[in-house]
Automatic annotation (TrEMBL):
Converts heme B (protoheme IX) to heme O by substitution of the vinyl group on carbon 2 of heme B porphyrin ring with a hydroxyethyl farnesyl side group. It comes from Sphingomonas sanxanigenens DSM 19645 = NX02. This is Protoheme IX farnesyltransferase. It comes from the Bacteria. The chain crosses the membrane at residues 24-45, 71-89, 95-113, 120-139, 145-169, 190-209, 215-233, 253-270. Belongs to the UbiA prenyltransferase family. Protoheme IX farnesyltransferase subfamily. Keywords: Cell membrane, Heme biosynthesis, Membrane, Transferase, Transmembrane, Transmembrane helix. GO terms for cellular component: plasma membrane. It catalyses: heme b + (2E,6E)-farnesyl diphosphate + H2O = Fe(II)-heme o + diphosphate. It is a multi-pass membrane protein.
Length: 276
């Protein structure tokens, strides 16, 4: 959720034009509320899975601190409030994209894909790629080439980010019956897929610089960050470790992938501020 809010904020700050600070704050608040609503509805629907997984068993529903009906009403109400506030206070283009992101995460990813296919995180990852579009549209009222590239970047970043985690928490997913790629296709296939998704992700991340959509500050940062990401992805692809407790390359890739997105979007904002 922190990354969702941060990528939306960076896109808002990098977008051409001007938005009143109060409206800008409102837009980012709506993104945060919409993300929270999505998480609440996800946990409402998946409370049975969460109860069987070590890393999620302490969440409010499986731990018995909240009943399912309250979670459902809270999630629906918060989601509706975030979309309506975005539309009335900012613009309806940003509100429509926010609504699409919430519905995609809840209905497409959580309800449909999560338990049905090992490609759940690939297709469902689009939900987490919407925030740059929302932040950009909040300022401009439209979507252009740069935010679309940012969408593609986050979309391609999600599988290596999440599968590196899934590799060392695979027993949790197996015990819960969730068909994550390491459970269904095995560790070697997962490691190969991580590298295969990293290559186009690198291209999408660097593309704004040669296309003239971002300056040298962003370009140099993108090249450096993606070189490190690719290095870790290669290390993961070459690893043959089967003990989750000893999967150091996978843990390093997962940890760096979070820093990577923060730093890359931060570099985009710095680039725009220096060129302004």
């Amino acid at each position: 959720m922190t990354l969702v809010v941060f990528t939306a904020l960076c896109a808002l700050l990098a977008a051409p034009g001007h938005i009143h600070p109060v409206l800008g704050f409102t837009a980012i608040l709506c993104v945060a509320l919409g993300s929270g609503a999505s998480g609440a509805l996800n946990q409402w629907y998946e409370s049975d899975i969460d109860a069987r997984m070590k890393r999620t068993a302490a969440r409010p529903l499986p731990a018995g601190r909240m009943d399912r009906d309250s979670a459902l009403h809270f999630g629906v109400g918060l989601g509706a409030f975030s979309v309506l506030t975005m539309g009335l206070a900012v613009n309806w283009v940003a509100a429509a994209i926010l609504l699409a992101a919430i519905l995609f995460y809840v209905l497409v990813y959580t309800v449909w894909l999560k338990r049905a296919t090992p490609q759940n995180i690939v297709i469902g990852g689009a939900a987490g790629a919407f925030p740059p579009l929302i932040g950009w549209a909040a300022v401009t009222g439209e979507v252009s080439t740069l935010p679309v590239l940012l969408f593609v970047l986050v979309f391609l970043w999600t599988p290596p980010h999440f599968w590196s985690l899934a590799l060392f928490v695979r027993p949790d997913y197996a015990s819960a019956g969730v068909p994550m790629l390491p459970v269904v296709a095995g560790e070697r296939t997962t490691r190969t897929q991580i590298l295969l998704y990293t290559v186009p992700m690198v291209a999408a991340a660097i593309a704004p610089w040669p296309l003239g959509l971002a300056g040298a500050v962003y370009g140099v940062a993108a090249v450096a960050l993606n070189a490190v990401f690719l290095f870790y992805a290669v290390r993961v692809a070459m690893s043959r470790e089967t003990d989750p407790a000893l999967m150091k390359p996978e843990r390093r890739l997962f940890g760096f992938s979070i820093l990577y997105l923060f730093a890359l979007f931060g570099a985009l904002v710095a680039d725009r501020l220096l060129l302004a």
